[in-house]
Specification:
153 residues, alpha+beta, four-stranded mixed β-sheet, 34% helix, globular
C-alpha cells in the first residue's frame, strides 16, 4: 500500500506530500478501518506475486439519496502494468462493493491535467465530470483553527 501511495504521489507530481508510513496505513486501514483497499496482484490466487494495483476507498452518505456512497480516494496501477485492464478490473470490483452496500453513487476526484484518466473515466466508465462543484479542504492547521472558532467569527 505504501508503494502505491508513493507511486500515486509521484504520478501526481507531489512526492513531497506523501508522508504516510507503514504504521499509519496499518492503523487506519486494518485496525480502525476508516478506509478499505482492493489490491491487484501479478500472479494467481495460489502464488499472488507482487502487488501491482490499488483501489483505496471509503463510504460516505448522501442526504439527497438517503443512501451511502462509495468514495474512491486512490486508484493506482504500476506504470508497467497500465493499459492491461487492471484499472477497469479494480473499478468493476468497486462497483460490486457499491452494489453490495446499496450505494447510490461512486465519486472520486481527478487532477485537471490528467487527461488520460479523464478520457478513460468518461469513455470507458461513462462517468460524468462534476463541474458545478468545487473541492474544499482543511489540512491539520486549518482543522486546529476551526476547532477554536467562536460564534462571533
Amino acid at each position: 500500500l505504501l508503494m502505491a501511495s508513493v507511486g500515486q504521489a509521484v504520478y501526481e507530481k507531489a512526492p513531497h506530500l506523501a508522508v504516510a508510513t507503514p504504521e499509519l496505513i496499518t492503523k487506519h486501514i486494518f485496525e480502525t478501518r476508516v478506509a478499505n483497499a482492493l489490491l491487484a496482484f501479478s500472479g494467481s490466487s495460489e502464488a499472488p506475486g507482487e502487488a501491482i494495483g490499488l483501489a483505496l476507498y471509503f463510504f460516505n452518505f448522501s442526504t439527497w439519496t438517503g443512501r451511502p456512497g462509495l468514495y474512491l480516494e486512490d486508484l493506482y496501477v504500476k506504470p508497467e502494468h497500465r493499459s492491461k485492464g487492471i484499472g477497469k478490473t479494480l473499478f468493476r470490483e468497486l462497483a460490486l462493493v457499491a452494489q453490495e452496500k446499496d450505494c447510490a453513487r461512486m465519486d472520486w476526484s481527478v487532477l485537471k491535467w490528467n487527461k488520460p484518466s479523464i478520457d478513460f473515466y468518461e469513455k470507458c466508465l461513462h462517468a460524468k465530470a462534476q463541474d458545478e462543484w468545487v473541492g474544499m479542504r482543511l489540512e491539520e492547521e486549518g482543522i486546529e483553527i476551526l476547532k477554536n472558532i467562536t460564534k462571533k467569527e
